[in-house]
Structure formats: structure tokens, C-alpha cells
Amino acid sequence: MNRSTRLGLASIAVGVLVLGLKYIGYLLTGSVALYSDALESIINVATALITVVAVAVSAIPADANHPYGHNKAEYLSAVLESTLIVIAALAILREAYMGFLHPRPLAAPALGIAFNLGATAINAAWGAILVRYGRRWHSPALVADGRHLWTDVVSSLGVAAGVALAALSGWQRLDALIAALVAVHILWSGWILMRDSIGGLMDRALPDETIAGLRRLIQETGDGALQAYDLRSRRAGARVFIEFNLVVPGAMPVAQAHAICDRLEAALHAYIDGSTVLIHLEPEGEAVAAPEVRIA
After folding, report:
1. In this predicted model, what pLDDT tens digit does every residue of 145-191 receive, in sequence order?
2. Were 92 and a residue from 10, 30, 36, 68 both cysteine, which residue would form a disulfide, CB within 3.0 to 4.6 Å?
3. Which domains are seen in the chain, by residue range?
């Protein structure tokens, strides 16, 4: 079991604990907003399960049928998580609508809010951990799960505020209105997560600043070559793929050209840990008029 899988399993335990605390808060108050918040936590547990499966699949080594590995499974899980977020938001909107039509008095709001805020604190701490280690380990699934928890934190704070205001003002419909506003926020967060995940599935290039760093590194360490062009890159989960054409003098011995490629590969591996580099050698006659990187 790798480290990402262990973190994902811990997320399931955290999700169950938070779900229990939020549901207790709903039982104490009868608040439609707290019920909606507990409903969203069910989605948190489901997405944690999805994350564990995705991280486990992405860790499977490359094979004959998947020579580039299984890393994109994490992007698929992130798309599924964003879909579940949207479903949760729609369910919350429905509960908010019913609560607005048929408002109910709140019982023991202070105690219910206390349970909800306790669960929210746990979610905030765990979400920060997931995002931190997900970025460090280049795991889109862990980052997506952590961001999802942060959307839950924001919505839970909004729910707690709505319940408190409804209890203090006596206007019970405010409970439902706050829940509806939070649902709209969750819908937006789900769309952002889905957009980023689809970008990974579509082999989106690395950020512009990273590409600029790659070009600078090729220029600095490609002594002996003439130029480089057609630089392409993509990320698949924790792996990064880099490829480009390298033009060398036509009379250069193969061994010398290979040594230049080895030097470039070592530098690029050091710049982006876990990267896979493919360099296509071409003779001087293939040089282009406006190369991406001019070395000599």
C-alpha cells in the first residue's frame, strides 16, 4: 500500500466521523440547512472511496496494454468527484426549496451549531493536509478530494451562520435561503474542479513558466547541439512527459550526440522529478528558421 492510498483510507475515516457529527447537529435542531450539510458529507465519504480506488489504480506499473502507465485514473476520479459535488448541490437546492415552502422551528440551535462547527474544523484541517501532500506527490485525486473538503468547509460555515441568524431573528425561511446560496457556491466549485480535471485528460501542456524553464535548461545544457524545436509536454497524474526535436551537426558521431541527449535528460529529470523525456535527434539539414531554443 503506497502513501497516497494510506492517506485516502484515512480520508474515509475522517468523512465518516464528520458525517456523524453533522447528522447529530441536524437531529438536535431539525434545521433543513444542517440536514443539507449532512447530505453533502455523504458525498464526501463517497468521493474518499473513489479517491482510494483511483490512487491504487494509478500506482499500477506500466504494462503491455498501458505503456504510459495508469496515472490518468486520477483525473477520471476527479471528474467523477466533481459530478457528485453537482449532484449534492442540486439535492441541497431541493431541500432548501422545500424548507422555504414549509419552514420549521429550530430546536437547540446552539448545540446543533456546535456539533456542525466541530465537524467543520476537522474537515478544514484534513482538507489542508490532502491538498498539501497531493501537490507534493503530484496526485490530482488527493488535491481534488482536499478541495472538495474545502468547499464543504465554506458551505458548513454558511449553514452555521444561516441557522444562527434564523434562530436569533425568528425568520425560519432564512435557514433555507442560506442553504440555497451555499448550494450555488458548491455548483461553481464543482464546475472549476471538473474543468481542471478535463484539462488533464485532454493532455494540457505544462504551465507557461515551467515551459520557459525547460527552454532555458535546454539552452544551458545542450552544448554541442545547434537548436531544439517542437517542444511538447503533458502531465498524467504524477508523471510528466517531455519531448522535443534536437538538431545536431550532420558530421557529429552518434556517440557524441547520444552523450548530449543523456546530459539533457539528466538535467530535465532533475528539474522535474519523475519526468519521462523523449528526444528526437535530427541532422543539421533539418534546422528550422525560428527554433524554440537556439543553442549554438
Report:
1. 788 788 788 878 888 888 888 888 888 888 888 778 878 877 887 77
2. 36
3. 3-201 (1.20.1510.10), 208-294 (3.30.70.1350)
